[in-house]
Batch of 4 targets.
Target 1
Amino acid sequence: MAQTKKIVGYMLVVFVLYTIITSPERAADLVQIGFEGISSAAQGVGRFMTSLVN
């Protein structure tokens, strides 16, 4: 099972590197979308915690 996880991890890294090398604009767009999602989620948690305190 550990070997399978390691192989899948390596394949994922190779795929990400391939995507970045072949299409850097698309990769940048995907990273931006990901960070916007994380930012949105953090803002939502912040608003929730603020409403709990108030």
Target 2
Amino acid sequence: MTAIRFNKGDNLKKGLVLAFGSYIAWGFLSIFWKLLSGVDAYEVFSYRMLSTMLTMLLYFLLFGKMGKLKTEVSGLIANKSELVTMILASFLISVNWLVFIYAVGHQQATAASLGYYINPLFSVLLAVVFLKERLENFTKLSLVLALIGVLILTIQGGRLPIVSILLPLSFGTYGLIKKNVTLSSDVAMFVETIVVTPFVLVFILFFAKHAPSDYTMSQIIYLILSGIITAIPLLLFAEALKQAPLNVVGFVQYVSPTIQLAVAIFLFHESFKLENLYGFTAIWLAIIVFIIGQVILMKKAKNMVK
């Protein structure tokens, strides 16, 4: 089995488009969370989870999809193994959200971008080990270049920040276990948020440092909108996983940290040393090699279909 099945060229193309859309959105998402940097990270996360759950519930109501939701949730409850998978996915994505919100609010957006540069490497490793996906030569070269870049950045920094470890660990594993989930993307998102909702409600009611009345009007509006802001890229990502191999979706993720890095440097004015360019140049070369390889394979797939 190759990393890309030529008889599924259309699915691959659709998966790549969806993946690019989700990662571009995620790349700029740090700007939104920066607007909430004055709010405690745990509180932002809790309201984000609650808002996303309500957003998805409203989505099912407005679009007449409550029947679909009930049917798929009933099937999920009957399928114990998939239910356990979804519960695990819920907590993995929760860790990822919380760590990223904390990083942006505490001047660690650059460390977060490094974490998401590492994530595709971790995704490819998971794909090879657990899904037995074989890598094309261009993917192997991309992997080596990206690994060199990450090692350079880690050595220059003197240590690997905990943020840069937790983000790929949580999101890479989340992507792996979601690969074979049969739930629709929208239902899966609702399930993930509803699983964690009781915990965030307990936190908001009994442990949060601030009440909603303590926030400014703009902060309240941002917290309400956080559900919509969260739902769109995550739905795109979930659908991308169903259309393309995990190692392909994983490498496309380099788009997101590149945008995040630019935002951290030019908008948030976080420090970035000139020597850091060596590491990032290797990573950017990995992206170029990967994209060229994907274009070649898609052309081959298209020619074989004719």
Target 3
Amino acid sequence: MKKRLCLALILVMSFALAACSNNDNNLSETDKGHSASDNSNRAQEEPTEDSISNIRIKLTFNKEEVFIRMYDNPTSRDFLERLPLTLTFEDYAGTEKISYPSNKLSTEEAPLGIDPTVGDFTYYAPWGNLAIYYKDFGYSKGLIKLGKIESGVEKLQDINSDFTVTIEQVD
């Protein structure tokens, strides 16, 4: 009985490891996660200066204000249509502040992922959460840039508990 149980466990573990293994050995680091069919209908990996819009939003929390310049992409436009919002943010991994809006945002024309930097206002499609980076982080598949903090990112770094943020578009 023990032998059968061990054999069954080994089989399950083997299948799990095979399913989770990365099979991109032939691709360069920049090509991983991309295929010819993916690239033909996808937006650029990183927003360019041309994709920055004139639209700004304001985050108000703890008697502080942070202004974000939004990018012009379908996910950002979907987010802007939902404003104003009041959301609770929490710290995640000592790198970002995250919140879960009630409904997922559009991922139409979204890149496969991005390499976020300090001040990036993003949407993580797999979990359906917003993320504001106050530290740099590595490439994340499923992450979409919504905007960039113009000033005040340091106001987020020292908040250690959950906090409520009002988000509204400004002129």
Target 4
Amino acid sequence: MTVYSKHFGVYGVYFKAGKLLCIHKNAGPYQNRYDLPGGSQENGEGLTETLVREIKEETGFAVTAYHHNRIYDAFVKPVHEIRTVHHIFAVYDVELDFNTPSKLPRQVSDGLNDSDGIAFVDLKTLNATNASPLVLKIVDEINQKED
């Protein structure tokens, strides 16, 4: 019997010159993979409030604009676990202020920061071995636009 749980998160997409802004994930089911910056809502927090907070926590950069919101999902079975996670994610295209970076906090409101920093990754190098399902969905979306 498969056991399911749900996870909802809000994530940002910054794509320029063929490269996608990703974080180096250090925990959770996407550990040691590229992931989109973002995460879970806190109590009483709206979607865009979560987006702005999570991106600042995981990248060190402030969001200056967001647009083109959409919803995707993926079913993820973490290694060595019985449960399958239905990961539902709201995604926004974002613009960032790269002029005022801040140091990534080690501790965030819901525990330890699960980002070890950022990378601008060429789409052609992202695959199921090194990227989260969220990243792969955005890669598919971008590739469909370019076809």
